[in-house]
Amino acid sequence: MPTRSKVPRLKLLPIGTYRGVDSDDPIRYYYWPFFGHMYRRRVELCLAECRGGQRVLEIGFGTGVAFINLHEMYNEIHGLDLTASIEKVHSVFAALGIQTFLRNGNILDMPYPDNYFNTVLLISILEHLKPLELGQAFHELHRVLVSGGQILYGAPVERSFMTTMFRLLGYDIHQFHFSTEKQIAEAAGKVFKMVRITQMKSTPPLFGAVYEVGHFVKAIDKP
User: Fold this and answer.
1) How many domains does the chain have?
2) What is the pLDDT of residues 62-98, one digit of tens each?
3) Which stretch of DSSP H or E encloses residue 123?
């Protein structure tokens, strides 16, 4: 099994810098005490699995909170998001000298050629799909990955602690999350080879795992 890199620190811009999303985007939570640690940690665990390479695609990039870290590992940063303002998000990172290739679109029908990305990253995206949509999503991810490419996803663990945390933030998790971490991992394993699944403990670690990071790879094409 490949070893995981040291967990990096998420490189955040000053609060108020990010643009291009509506008021429902969770970017503000990254700066909060307690909640902020958990929000940052889930991204950091995903980044620790990234191997680097030519191209990375982040699906559901939102404000682009992971882009600075990804820029240090990949030559090209691509992003696909249903609703984010491409121009506004692009402008934030262009001002930092970071070029991004962003599009609006859907994971179920992606506007990319076959065998194109070294890594596809999905942080808190797949739980929003219905269980019957997961298979289609993973086959589409398989299509756009190069041979041996990796898919990295993060998903909340279905348990009462997480439900309570979201209620404290003003959300009923069951109105937005339709697939559990177990359903996501099972669907991924039907299309990809699993490298590992890493669990993130609660803060403080009294309530067990609250988030899960899956690392799967596309089989290497045989000559």
Assistant:
1) 1
2) 999 999 999 999 999 999 999 999 999 999 999 999 9
3) strand 117-123
- pTM reported for the whole predicted model: 0.91
52, part of any domain: yes
Asked if residues 198 and 132 have their Cβ atoms less than 8 Å apart, the reply is: no
Asked if residue 154 belongs to a domain, the reply is yes
Q: Which residues pair with 123 in a beta bridge?
A: 154
Distance CA 45, CA 184 (A): 17
How far is 144 from 79, CA to CA, in rounded Å?
13
Tell me which residue range forms the domain holding 195.
Answer: 32-217
Buried (b) or exposed (e) across 111-143, using 16+ Cβ within 10 A? ebeeebbbbbbbbbbbbebeeebbeebbebbbe
Phi, psi (degrees; rounded to nearest 5) at 170: 95, 20
Task: Write the CATH number for 202.
Answer: 3.40.50.150
